Amino acid sequence: MVNKKLNFAAIDIGSNAVRLLIKSVAVGASPAEMTKALLVRIPLRLGEEVFARGSVSASKEKRLLRTIKAFRLLMKVYDVTAYRACATSAMRDASNGERIARDIHNKTGIRLEIIDGIEEARIVYDSHIADLFDRSGHYVYVDVGGGSTEISLIAEGELVGSHSYDIGTVRQLTGTVEASAFERMDRDLDELSARWPGLKIIGSGGNINKLLRMGEGADAGVLPVETLRDIYTKLRERSVEERMEEFGLRPDRADVIIPASEIFLDIADRLGADSIYVPTIGITDGIAHNLYARYLADMQDDD
């Protein structure tokens, strides 16, 4: 008899894109055995307006509502057991973010949580990322998004602490990153490097995933920093249109990939790292894994 499959849905309302991930798992299997059933990505780029003018426009709000309605229908098609919808940096900064979240809940039944950067980092850690690496090692997990960058210290398989910085790819393109944010991040990185010598970097986000695939010789999910530097130089020398044509980049990737590369290179240089591990796991994976872990815990409580 085939084990029944359960589906769990994660919605990530980011500064660059809005994503729906549905992961499937057999009842009783471990969260690490979850597999992707569906991934939908809508390049809404909420941060473009929010970081420049402080709020989400009526037209973008309407597109976001339509997107969430479509996601709700897809979740019904996949008979989703549980879902969680999280909004990050752009909705945090938007003066009308809370009101939009309430309106979407009233019109779709989907509850949006506007979470802070530390919660973002905790969710990603819940994706069991520590299980993929040597538990005796020390790592910094770096998630570069459209509106913020989260940096977490993982030592001997445990999450030691996290910091969130208002440094993101869309925020950089709009020229709204304050110098103090970079100063704080660099200062914290210097302290981490001094206290934990030889830290290894784990990279997360659509840009580093793409950069890994672009790197010739990038093997087993590892992107050498020098390879990243070479790719960055080639990309920077070309226009957005040339990047799209030569490297097969989507329009909403061809511009943000430059500031993403700069952020990763800055962090690697600060830590003296020569490579970046890229397991292609992000916030949506963490949400789905956490939902299933909660489901298993509830089952045990009922026994």
Structural notes for this entry:
With 303 residues, the protein is an alpha/beta fold. It folds into two domains: 5-117, 2-Layer Sandwich (Nucleotidyltransferase, domain 5); 130-281, Exopolyphosphatase. Domain 2 (Nucleotidyltransferase, domain 5, 2-Layer Sandwich). It has 13 helices and eleven strands. It has helices spanning 47-53, 58-77, 89-93, 97-108, 117-125, 169-173, 179-195, 206-214, 225-236, 240-247, 251-254, 257-271, 283-302; strands at residues 5-13, 18-26, 35-42, 82-87, 112-114, 138-144, 149-155, 158-165, 200-204, 222-224, 275-277. The strands form two sheets. A six-stranded mixed β-sheet has the order 8-7-6-9-11-10, with helices on both faces. A five-stranded mixed β-sheet has the order 3-2-1-4-5, with helices on both faces. A hairpin with a 4-residue loop joins strand 6 (138-144) and strand 7 (149-155). The longest helix has 20 residues, at 58-77. The chain is globular, with a radius of gyration of 19 Å. The model has no long low-confidence stretch (mean pLDDT 91).
